[in-house]
Amino acid sequence: MTVLVNLIVTLGMLYVVPAGLRLIDPAGLRTAARLWPVPAALGALCLWLPRGIPATALAALYAAAALALATRAPARLLEARRRSRAGGSAGGAPPRTTVSGPAEVAVCTALVSPSIAATALVAERAGYRLFGFDLDILALTVPHFHFAGFTAALVAGLVCRAGATAPAIAPATAPGSATLSRWAAYSVPGGTLLVLLGYFVDDWAELAGAVVLTTGMWAVALLTWRDIRPGARDRTTGALLGTSAAVLVATMLLALWWAAGEATGITHPTLTWMAATHGLGNALGFALCSVLAWRRLTVD
Fold first, then answer.
1. pLDDT by residue, tens only, the chain of 300 residues
2. Minimal CA–CA distance to 216: which of 199, 242, 241, 193?
3. Which of 33, 49, 163, 232 could cross-link with 237 by S-S, CB 3.0 to 4.6 Å?
4. Rounded to the nearest 10 degrees, what angle do helices 17-24 and 102-126 cross at?
5. Number of Cβ atoms within 10 Å of the Cβ of 50
């Protein structure tokens, strides 16, 4: 399981995060996206070293970059609130990269998530049971907040943003899509937070978070399939979007099964099996395909 988890995390650090930053704000986050591979490479390297001072030091450097990224979130939320009160931009509509409301909540959740992952990484590499959690749980928190945290919130925000400000991407949204996209943009960050809080409360709280997160991700899948995919410029982009939507249905069902098993004691997959199915599916089938597709959709 360790090798598989490390490969998944490496993908998230080196490609998914910097590519996602360019999708969030190509201008405002250009420098951060360009420089991100440097600390990401250090973070990825620490995964393959034995626990100890060298691995911890490299993880701490990555954590510093992740914390710096997280500081961008409050400023974006304040700007979104200011724009909302002012009624948008001078032209009457906010630019695509600074949409207020639920899309901005999701985007800011994405910006904060790597710092949570990096904090867990530092503790795990130091062999320190942060908040009393087993090292295996800390190790799995790292991919969880790179993908369920960063990528899931990012895509939920992009889907919400597309319906509101980029009709060329979602040209024929169905009735109710706006409400559904707002639900996705709020419930994915909310569900992720509830899952995190469930770590500190009990398995039932974690199950509640899994339910909220799953419904949000299934909303993302439905909107991607029904509203975003038809606007794809070519078959490759459409296939990437279709794959990401289909994979979410299966992987989030697995997440519900695991959370329900932990809470009720019913038979459920092991962590190793979850890493090989839910984790790998989300990393490759959802996150990678989504980022590649949205890069193709938004390229000028």
1. 788 889 999 999 999 999 999 999 999 899 999 999 999 999 999 999 999 999 999 999 999 999 999 999 998 888 777 776 666 543 444 444 445 588 999 999 999 999 999 999 999 999 999 999 999 989 999 999 999 899 999 999 999 988 765 555 555 556 678 889 999 999 999 999 999 898 888 899 999 999 999 999 999 999 999 999 998 989 999 999 999 999 999 999 999 999 999 999 999 999 889 989 999 999 999 999 999 999 999 875
2. 193
3. 232
4. 160
5. 8
